[in-house]
Amino acid sequence: MPPTEAQLPLLRALWPSPFVCRWNLHRRHGAYGYESAKAQYAPFDRLQDPDPETRAHLARVITGTCGAGQSAYVTINNKAEGSAPLSVAALGAALATG
Predict the structure, then answer these.
(1) Which H or E element spans position 51?
(2) How far apart are CA 67 and CA 30, in angstroms?
(3) Would the pLDDT of 19 be above 80?
């Protein structure tokens, strides 16, 4: 899938509707870098490649979606930044600070 910002025109065309997202792989690994990211990020206990840009895009879309009365669902993989639980916490913090 293209980066979130490249998908925004499609999201705007469907607005308002629920938002469903899977943040699976840091863009630096490319479309086929899942195994290399897995090897690099193990044991998935810290944010090794923080991606504040993607996090900010997601926070903006989630805020707008929920503000329009729709639901937002996001799953995050360990290969997004190095630790899914820590990525979830960072996204939550971004949402809380607006």
Answers:
(1) none
(2) 32
(3) yes
DSSP state of 75: E
Region for 84 from its dihedrals, namely left if φ exceeds 0, alpha if ψ lies in -120 to 50, beta otherwise: alpha
Q: Which residue has the higher pLDDT, 15 or 69?
A: 69
DSSP 10-56: HHHHT-SS-EEEEE-S-GGG-TT-HHHHHHHHTT--S-SS--HHHHH
Total-model pTM: 0.86
Asked if 20 and 62 touch (Cβ cutoff 8 Å), the reply is: no
Residue 2 banded pLDDT, cuts 50, 70, 90: confident
**d(C-alpha 35, C-alpha 52), whole Å:** 23
Peptide bond preceding 16: is omega within 30 degrees of 0, i.e. cis?
yes
